Amino acid sequence: MLLSLIRSGNVDLISIIVYIISSLMVIFLVMPLHEWAHGFVAYKLGDRTAKYQKRLTLNPLAHIDYLGAAMILLIGFGWAKPVPVDPRNFKNPKRDMALTALAGPVSNLLAAVVSGLISNLIVMIMIKTGNSSLSTGFVYVLLFFRYLMMINASLAVFNFIPIPPLDGSKILMAFLPYKAIFWIERHQTYISMIFMVAVLMGGVSNIIYPVQEWLCNGINWLTALPFLWAW
Questions:
Q1: From CA 109, how far away is CA 157, in angstroms rounded?
Q2: Three-class SS of residue 176?
Q3: Of 96, 205, 98, which Cα lies nearest the Cα of 157?
């Protein structure tokens, strides 16, 4: 999204800096939470692999993938280093693997909702105060949380795509027959390579951005309701 902002020519330098800061917050705070959520759910369901490999942590250095981080900064979605999960340790491998995979994008959705709540709170404060100098000071804080909401929405949409190695593929496998799962696993390397090329060439953005916009509109509407009622 940074590339889109720069190409548009409709944003000032401070807005670009705010976007960079919000991206860094996602990279160093939200993405570790995303990966921790995978590991935590897997741990609760019987798989201790992430704990044994010291990945059941919020330390960003344990999770950061530099190419994925660069993609988050530049286009608004990317990835961290996947937390290791061994489905053989689950009582119900298909179901439990799907639940473990689901935890990641759900953490992004929750982060987007929290960002939406804070941004709508800021809007209410700006309206309540009616102070133009205060409103000017709040506008970039508001922009920061709007960017956080947008990036987290993008990450949720991206991870729900049912193509390996994304979380959506593992969720999909819970509903597929074992024959189809074996075929996907046998060809996963090639599928992942083709998908990564599509991401790097910008083909996936055309799918993600419209859905992200729809999702952000929904989150913004939902998180505005408590303040409308309070008004």
A1: 9
A2: coil
A3: 205
> pTM for this one?
0.93
42 near 30, Cβ under 8 Å? no
d(CA 9, CA 160): 31
Helix/strand/coil percent split, the chain, to 5: 80, 0, 20
CA distance 53 to 85: 10
37-83 per-position pLDDT tens digit: 999 999 999 999 999 999 999 999 999 999 999 999 999 999 999 99
Residue for token pair 């491998």: 93
Amino acid sitting at position 50: A
Q: Residue 133 has what pLDDT?
A: 58
Assess whether 213 carries a catalytic annotation.
no
Helix or strand holding residue 156 (H, E): helix 132-160
R_g of the chain computed on alpha carbons: 19
Rounded Cα distance between 198 and 93, Å, is 30
In the chain, beta strands by DSSP E: none
Q: Are residues 144 and 152 in contact, defined by beta-carbon separation less than 8 angstroms?
A: no
Mean pLDDT of 2-25: 85
State which amino acid sits at residue 215. L
Residues 50/82, Cβ–Cβ less than 8 Å: no
Question: Could you read off the pLDDT of 177-216 as tens digits, one per residue?
Answer: 989 989 998 999 999 999 989 888 888 888 899 999 999 9
* Catalytic-role residue among 35, 47, 96, 167: 35
